[in-house]
Amino acid sequence: MLGLSPEQQQQRKIDGKEWQIIRPDGSPMPASEYASVRALNEKCQIENVEMGIRKAEDEVTWINVSASPIPLEGYGVAIVYNDITARKQLEGDLQKNKEGKTS
To answer: How far is residue 79's CA from residue 75's CA, in Å, rounded to a whole number?
Structure first.
């Protein structure tokens, strides 16, 4: 999904500058808003957090993330995500089309 080797992926940190995670409005998303961080902090399941992973030259992979804390000593959080890039592109195209018709 990100075009990274397993080694490159393991070298990244959740709050590293190389991630460039954005909210649906395009603004930077702080790590405190990630579904996984919220699930750990709030000690509950967090569902359907949309986030974009900005890659080279304004290419963005959009994902929908849900996370749930694992209630066992020494474990963190279980994360499920879906690539929603195609859906987001269609939504953007529909909005542009709608705006073009009202002009």
So the answer is: 12
Question: What is the domain partition of the chain in residue ranges?
Answer: 6-102
Measured distance CA(1)–CA(13) in Å, rounded: 17
For CA atoms 87, 90, 54, 47, the dihedral sign is negative
65 SS3 class: strand
H or E stretch covering 82: strand 77-83
Domain 6-102 fold = Beta-Lactamase (3.30.450)
For the chain, how many residues are written?
A: 103
Please name the amino acid found at residue 88. Answer: K
Q: Which parts of the chain have pLDDT scores under 50?
A: none
Terminal Cα distance for the chain, rounded: 37
Instruction: Tell me which amino acid residue 50 is.
Output: E
Question: Given this model, what pLDDT does residue 14 score?
Answer: 61
Rounded Cα distance between 50 and 62, Å, is 7
